[in-house]
Amino acid sequence: MTDTWISRRACLGAGGGLAVVAVGGTLCAAPAPRDRLPSGDAFAPWTSFDDPSLAGTPFALVAAAVLAANPHDTQPWLFHVGDDAIDVHADVSRNLGAMDPYLREMHLGLGCAIENMALAGPPNGYAVRVAPVAGSVIGIEARDRPVLAATLALSPQPPGAADPLHRAIPHRHTNRYAYDRARGLDTNWMDAARRLGETDGVRVMFLEGAARDRLESAMIDATRSIVADAPMIADSDRWFRMTDAEIDAHRDGPTLAAAGLSFLQLAFARLFPVSAQTSHAAWLAQTRDTQLATAPVLGLIAARDRYDRPATIAAGRCWQRLHLDATLNGVALQPINQPIEMIDRERQTGRGDAFAQRIAELTGPDWQATFGFRAGVCARGGVASPRRRLADVLVA
Ligand SMILES: Cc1cc2nc3c(=O)[nH]c(=O)nc-3n(C[C@H](O)[C@H](O)[C@H](O)COP(=O)(O)O)c2cc1C
């Protein structure tokens, strides 16, 4: 697969092309990282985001939704578009099994999509009011039919100015490369990021010093635990798309190109497929020795109850906003959710609550982390992931 390099500066246009990044305490004009868009129709949704034929219709909101972050690129969403509302359904058939036994991560991903829709409303002539379904994700038993997660009420209004985050939607990509550990993040940016979820009962926490190191250990230990848990790692592996043919057929799932591999590692992985055991060992090594070792900052997003459905959607919205804001400010982000996935898994299997306790020591007893991530500055931009067509995610 060939990669097309698109200059973000060119994409954002005169209105806001120059990413302003605040690094090491001083604001400076960053060399704009560039989007990497692999070729193939599975990546077309990234360029049809502002398709003029959708402008001013509710479908423009769905075109924004499908570009959201989501667990393992499962794209677990279905949209019912009505005259004055869009229903967002969890496509529970696209669940991650033992990696997400309570559909908590699925609902985080739906929250990410909902945030993109809320941002796409005003420039397309809609005020958007989000009403999430109440209750706990633990009560959702269905795995064979869509489950309503939220309704977005749309009120027509004259098209208004877009939130600056809106223009970052097609440029936001998870960045799994090595970061520059020597370049810390600007404290003003971090302070603003901490406030992102404030009004929705969600907290963004950045961990530094000893707390950062404890989170790093939990992330490494959780990765080991997942590799050792046969059902978990199998449920994770089945979403990986190793070849162009698989990407074209499925238009979803993690790809080699987006895995953060060096040029040589990527070439080797494409030429010489390895055993599952070798690839799991490589994932652990990459998490520990590259992704965590080079991350100046680790973070958590927490809610009062990590299984509450509205709180989970609010936490997903918060992550999407954080990532869009980071994209505009030259900050690279990657979720690292293994510890929280292990909290769910220990609960599901009755194997105790060791990971829940380790993470609670970092958040305090009043908050429950539902999302972990690393942040930093990276010389390379993240690589786009495949997306399904609009027609695949619309329901009658
Ligand atoms: C709830 C959730 C959990 C995620 N967990 C991880 C993770 O543990 N490791 C990782 O590399 N990416 C993780 N991601 C990122 C997704 O893999 C990514 O959003 C998806 O593949 C689509 O790619 P994109 O974000 O570049 O569009 C997570 C995203 C979400 C929303």
Automatic annotation (TrEMBL):
<dbReference type="InterPro" id="IPR000415">
    <property type="entry name" value="Nitroreductase-like"/>
</dbReference>
<dbReference type="GO" id="GO:0016491">
    <property type="term" value="F:oxidoreductase activity"/>
</dbReference>
<dbReference type="InterPro" id="IPR006311">
    <property type="entry name" value="TAT_signal"/>
</dbReference>
<protein>
    <recommendedName>
        <fullName>Twin-arginine translocation pathway signal protein</fullName>
    </recommendedName>
</protein>
